[in-house]
Amino acid sequence: MNPTESKLWHFSVRRAMAYIQPTAKTEDGFYISIEPIEVVSIADTGAFTRALRQMLSLGNPIVPTPDRDNPPKSSLLEKAKVKSISQFQRIAQEWEITARDGIYTIGKMRRSTAYRGCWEDDPATNETLGLLTTLDEVANRVVQRVQAAK
């Protein structure tokens, strides 16, 4: 991964399960979640760390911009055993990891007050990791933060 390139990843935690999926950048420049989704218990430190490390190592592959009228199907609802994304998000925690110029930031998202149904960065929860932080160290710290936030 190019250390000067900006990267973004996000994942959800719901009922002590982490829903981890790669984040791609579209040709138009916005980020979307793509398959596959890996579901792991946040209590299983090893599996949770490995899944995060895998997600981070993929970076943000470039994908074609999806058609608004025919978006790609996601297996999230099936894996979470819910009927709608709003049902999933009602009790979910959303987390975000960013990298810019080789510096990683971890933060918990909050529901937007301006845009119904959207999530936004919660600066009060952000933690910045040093320039020489490895992907393994990022994944380990994310696991610690999520497990502590239960």
Q: Could you describe the 3D structure shown?
A:
- The protein has 150 residues and is of the alpha+beta class.
- The protein has a domain at 9-94 and 135-149.
- The protein contains four helices and ten strands.
- Strands 1, 2, 5, 7, 8, 9 and 10 form a seven-stranded antiparallel sheet that branches.
- Helix 1 packs across helix 4 (135-149).
- It is globular and about 40 Å long.
- The model has no long low-confidence stretch (mean pLDDT 92).
Features of the shown structure:
single chain; 150 residues; alpha+beta; seven-stranded antiparallel sheet; three-stranded mixed sheet; 4 helices; 10 strands
Short description:
The protein is α+β, with helices and mostly antiparallel strands.
Using the alpha-carbon principal axes, give the shape: globular
The number of distinct β-strands equals 10
Strand content: 25-35%
| Spatial gap, N to C terminus | 31 Å
Radius of gyration: 15 Å
Helix content: 25-40%
| Low confidence ranges | none
**Helix-strand category:** alpha+beta
How are helices and strands ordered from N to C?
EEEEEHEHHEEEEH
Task: Give the number of helices.
Answer: 4
Mean pLDDT, all residues? 92
The major pleated sheet works out as: 7 strands, antiparallel
How does the SSE layout of this entry go?
Elements: E1 7-14, E2 17-20, E3 23-26, E4 31-33, E5 38-41, H1 45-57, E6 62-63, H2 76-80, H3 85-90, E7 93-100, E8 103-111, E9 119-121, E10 127-129, H4 135-149
